[in-house]
Automatic annotation (TrEMBL):
The lineage of its organism: Bacteria, Pseudomonadati, Pseudomonadota, Gammaproteobacteria, Pseudomonadales. Its EC number is 2.5.1.15. This is Dihydropteroate synthase. The keyword Mitochondrion does not apply. Keywords: Folate biosynthesis, Magnesium, Metal-binding, Transferase. One of its GO terms (biological process) is tetrahydrofolate biosynthetic process.
Amino acid sequence: MTSVQSLTRLPCGNRVLDLAQTHVMGILNVTPDSFSDGGRYSQLDAALRHAEAMVLAGATLIDVGGESTRPGARAVSPLEELERVAPIVELINRELDVIISVDTSTPAVMRETARLGAGLINDVRSLRRDGALDAAAATGLPVCLMHMLGEPGDMQDNPQYQDVTREVGEFLAERMDQCAQAGIPAERIILDPGFGFAKTLQHNLSLFKHMEALHTLGRPLLVGVSRKSMIGHALNRPVGERLHGGLALAALASVKGARILRVHDVAETVDVVRMIAAVESAE
Ligand code: 9MG
């Protein structure tokens, strides 16, 4: 392997993510209301079918989450979260050729899903829960560290910044230091500005505009804006009418160098990414 290849290839369990390209990560929520069409088997089957459809549409990662991060969402116990997430991780690993990302802050969920075939830990709390740094280190998997202040329940209570991009960068650099001390090297880290987490519309827009500044941290960026209220507030659209705004932001994020786009609308976003790649590879 050449040194350039080793810089762009991120081992994710038994698969490898080629960071020379922009990837689309499909969102798979496995909270009780996501697939509420009957018994346990049919919910699992519906979740697998949804994951499969996203893979066929071009997703190279599926982000499986069992705890809602929406403000006001009910907290779930580690056991409850594990019972939601573990069976679908095991099933996707068996049935589909895709990198499984697990959206969790819970040490036990990190350890068990890694054993069942997960390839990436996506933690909106940046491994700040007790035991999370050690659990993530023990898995050997890459980790996505996301910026958020406070907890999902209180994060939108008057967030304040002098310079949002600088402060997000400082937060992520500090979390990378904590990871290094816990035995998670920089090469295993993906960074995420955390759009919609403890930020007003103006904070989100400014952070998006200046996102390139985060490249100085030297790690790939993941961006998640799909259907979020920053689109709703900027365009005055309800959640069902945010696709076009989301695709505009996906295109902009890709051009600004984001390597992973976390989205609900996989097929549409894959077209955006492919179109940009076609132009960029032209003479
Ligand atoms: C779980 N989740 C919800 N929004 C997210 C975002 O913007 N980034 C990441 N990494 N995870 C998210």
